[in-house]
């Protein structure tokens, strides 16, 4: 099974490769509609898989090398299958409303606190309680959550 760390690395590589192709397309003489799409994609922080497919299409149309992006896309779709089981593991440790981005996980934790998990070799957890100030109990909660996540992300 693929780890969430590997999925995150693949996703980030896909973003980088997509941006390279977009910058090459930006230099080409293309239609106004396609140019506006390229500008839109360049302004986005995170591209969706649907965006990447459109970038591959445009790259091929204007005879750019899209091999690395296509290969990365296939790897991404293979690794994407690990997400549902990883979400289940996160639910088991008390998180809910989980959203997984290339290098960040948004979730709700204890007492609906906002939890942000930065996906790295050593994950960092930032928690923001709703309607209350940081207490020692909440700080202990986020530290305990970070320990559990280190085991999951390996």
Strands side by side in the biggest sheet: 1-2-3-4
Mean pLDDT: 87
Shape: elongated
Distance between the termini: 12 Å
Task: Please bin the fraction of helical residues.
Answer: 55-70%
Number of helices: 6
Number of strands: 4
Beta content comes to 5-15%
Low-pLDDT regions = none
Number of domains: 2
Structural class of the secondary structure composition?
A: alpha+beta
Largest sheet: 4 strands, antiparallel
Q: Compute the gyration radius: what is it?
A: 19 Å
Give the SSE order as H and E letters: HHHHHEEEEH
Structural descriptors:
6 helices; elongated; 154 residues; alpha+beta; 2 domains; 4 strands
Describe the model:
With 154 residues, the protein is of the alpha+beta class. It folds into two domains: 4-81, no CATH class; 93-153, no CATH class. Helix content is 58%, strand content 13%. The protein has a four-stranded antiparallel beta sheet, covered by helices on one side. The protein is elongated and about 60 Å long.
Condensed summary:
Helices cover 58% and strands 13% of the residues. By secondary structure, it is α+β, with helices and mostly antiparallel strands. It has two domains: 4-81, no CATH class; 93-153, no CATH class.
Topology record:
Elements: H1 4-26, H2 32-43, H3 49-61, H4 67-79, H5 83-92, E1 96-100, E2 104-108, E3 114-118, E4 124-128, H6 136-153
Antiparallel strand pairs: 1-2, 2-3, 3-4
Helix pairs in contact: 1-2, 1-3, 1-4
